[in-house]
Amino acid sequence: MTVDPNVLLAIDLGAATASAALIGPVDGRRRLLGSLALPAGVSEDRLADHLLERIRRADPALADDLGLGDGALATVPRRIVRSAPPPTLVVLAPTVRARLAVERVAGLAGWRTRGASLEPDGTIGLTRTALERGVDALAVTGDPATSREETTAMTELAATVEGIVGRPSAPRLIRVGELARDDLGLEPEAPTGEGSMYAPGPEAGEPPGEPLRHLLERLDPTGPTSRRSALTALIDLAAALDRRIELVEVGFDGALRAVAGPHGLEASPAFVPAASAVPLDLDDDAVDEVLAWSTVALDRHRMRDRLRDLRLSPWLEAHGDGARLRLAAARAAVTRLVTLTPWLEALPAPDLIVVAGGAWAAAPGPAIALAIADVIRRPGTSQLAFDHARLLGPLGAIEDPVERQALFAELADDLLAPLGSLIVPLGLRAGRSAGRLTVRGPAGETSLDLVPGGLQLVDLPPGQLAEVDLRFRDPVGMGTRGRHLTVQVGGGLGGLLVDLRDIPLRLPERPERRRALLEAWQAAFWAGGDQ
Amino acid sequence: MTSDVETDERDLELVPARRLLDPEPIARFELAPGDRILVAEGDRVSVGMGLAERQREPRVDDGPPVAGATEVDHPALRAGDWWPGDGHEGGGPLRRRHPRSPAGELLHPEDGRWRIATGSHVDVLEAPAAGTVLEAIPGRGLTIRLAGSALAGTSAAGIPTRGRLERAIGETGLRGALDVGRAGAILVVDGRIDSEAIIRARATGVRGVIASSLAGKDLRDLQASEARQRASLQPLAPFAVLVLDGTARRPLAGPVADLLGSLEGREVAIVVDPPLVVFNPPSPAIPPPGRDRVRVMGGDLVGREGRWLRGAGLRRFPAGVLLEAATIALDDGEVATVALADLERFV
């Protein structure tokens, strides 16, 4: 029997997670029929075969109708995307300040950066760093010299770079900044005739660094990865749903944050390798960031070991304390992502926040909702949803925009698992009660006091809509400012979260008190999970 | 419809697989500017052969003059070439006086002369195993296809080394084993081990330690101790530590223990990048582990081994997490359901 032409197998082979989802027609409309996520390493065929077998067992009649019997595996059309480790850019500069300016921009364009400066590292340090294995490109930058010492340093840097690029094994050279242009008399992006090119400086453009970030994105040698495809998917999804959507994707090798509206991206997206679920370089700062969110009592050494093991085997012990540790690491990753993308944080709260990526693969929905509420703290009302079948990457990779957009329009309901809605008011005054909230939904009316500093959870199942009436004693900010606000919210796995905590969130300094507070907040979201 | 037995067999392939033997191991040896490469691409190297001279404290110095427009170097010098020092300058005869420029790696031309990376103290990097040089890049390193087979670890530290394989059981066994009679040995430690015991092992002439797990702090202590030794300018004897699993305490996997047991008393090598134990395959060859053999890597049953029975579908685990699960029969006869991702199998 031939496979129905509307059946599609969407496969995302990530660095840590391999997932497959089957899309097929049901009652004349394409629907998500099933999905599966497993540790990376399993073969693409085995993954797909396991999913098909599960669908055959769950609904033999549907499987027969769609031609998904034994032997169908080879003939089901597939859309496959893969993750790739981020490319590495080495930045050489006369000073640490000049180097970090370029590294900051490159780190938002999907490049993993390393660098050396003439000041502390010397010629040998510069040469060694540039010649390390796995370097995809070499950027050299510098400030205009204002003294004899600076002129000497720039001369020495130029000579060192000349020596590096003169070697047969040298990586591609990108000369960054005004100085390079003045020296070479080149226009932006012009090849210099020796395999190198000129790029605008890290402060050039509006917003500063945008032209350099854009150029580096285009120079990314890894090609179309699932993360890049997910950005295309976000734009189509925002158009299909006619809503403002923020995508927060965190994976093994990096993260993506972007905001799109019905007419396209609202600001530059950020591809940030430094915001991977577990950073490659587990320095003290990286370990402390996870400790700050951990409800598991561990010292720094033990936490570093746990994170190192998590990097080695991302799916190992994904339950119990391991699940909580993963979400602590994911919170730390999103915190880094938020810190590095202030221009996205400054945008108004979106209608919908879509959470995606392997960092959340095995986590319960309500716990994901709280993790996002803990870290992304914009005043306003947003819905939260999860790319549970990891479809954004594969569907975003469909070349034909008409086909892609049609698929998003049909699949919008299945594509995202609703996690709930989030209400975050700004400017609450401390006190016993800040006002009162009334939720009117299909199940009736619920009313509760708004206690400043608290996190209140209202049960609102997926698929249900409710009207929320908020009456505050004093004016608060929620996109608009007022005392009496009425908003429409949708339900989800985590229900309705009314988050009256500080913006930004303030946690106790003492570890025991911090853990106790985090546990108290999280208790309701992991409820019943330890049996 | 596929039979249940076939499905169970196929489900086993969903368990993360780990390769027990790499029949064509490739090792990399990192070098820095100023290090002198003693081999060339395509060379066959034997055990103990010098691969490179590593500078302990490289510095920048003046090298030979850059050839002028009318002069021609034979062959033309370029960055990365090795400059053998004065006496070869300009092709003139050797002169019996203090050299005008030391030997070193050409970095870049400046003010009419090459700048070179040079130094006073070198350590010779010896080949821990025989093989063929695939790549020799000045300033970056060597890549060598090693003869023999290899067992992969998860991390390693130290200098590539070689020695006869001996076993020690646990930290107590290791401490008891630390006498000069073990000099030249590579010890396999099945059980807990710390940096102090490893440093003592190195002091008694042991050439390396293979452990199932090692805490990150102990690994860092070891690296700090090695850095202190290097700073003392004493010649460093090759010594390396290889960790097979990670930082969480686990016993050696059964198939790995069997393999290392069959190599006891024989020469093996440890290379650091990637972390490998390299050896000539034992004869007679040890039988591969059973296809349905699995090992629990995480959770309450960590370290235990058994036989795959069947996939158990999606199950709810502690903290409310839904995961693919499997049913296995442990070696003591107990039947358990564990998260599929907590298992590993050897292929």
Protein model, in words:
- The complex is a heterodimer of chains A (531) and B (347).
- Chain A is an alpha/beta fold and 531 residues long.
- In chain A, 35% of the residues lie in helices and 27% in strands.
- Chain A is built from 16 helices and 22 strands.
- Chain A has helices spanning 44-58, 60-65, 96-106, 118-131, 148-165, 178-184, 210-219, 226-241, 284-291, 300-312, 321-340, 342-345, 365-375, 392-396, 401-415, 511-522, and strands at residues 8-13, 17-26, 29-39, 78-82, 88-93, 112-117, 137-141, 172-176, 197-199, 245-250, 255-261, 264-265, 270-272, 352-356, 380-386, 417-424, 435-441, 444-450, 455-458, 465-478, 480-490, 496-499.
- In chain A, the strands form 4 sheets. In chain A, strands 10, 11, 12, 13, 14, 15, 16, 19 and 22 form a 9-stranded mixed sheet that branches. A 5-stranded parallel sheet of chain A has the order 6-5-7-8-9, sandwiched between helices.
- Chain A is globular.
- The relative contact order of chain A is 0.10.
- The mean pLDDT of chain A is 91.
- Chain B starts with a helix and ends with a strand.
- Chain B has helices at 4-11, 170-177, 195-203, 216-231, 254-262, and strands at 17-18, 26-30, 36-37, 44-45, 50-55, 59-65, 82-83, 104-110, 113-118, 122-126, 131-137, 141-146, 149-152, 155-158, 161-169, 185-190, 208-213, 240-246, 267-271, 276-279, 293-296, 305-317, 321-330, 335-339, 343-346.
- An 8-stranded mixed sheet of chain B has the order 13-20-19-15-16-17-18-14, sandwiched between helices. A 6-stranded mixed sheet of chain B has the order 1-25-21-22-23-24, covered by helices on one side.
- Residues 88-92 of chain B have low confidence and may be disordered.
- In chain B, helix 3 packs parallel to helix 4.
- Chain B has 347 residues and is mainly beta.
- The radius of gyration of chain B is 26 Å and the shape is elongated.
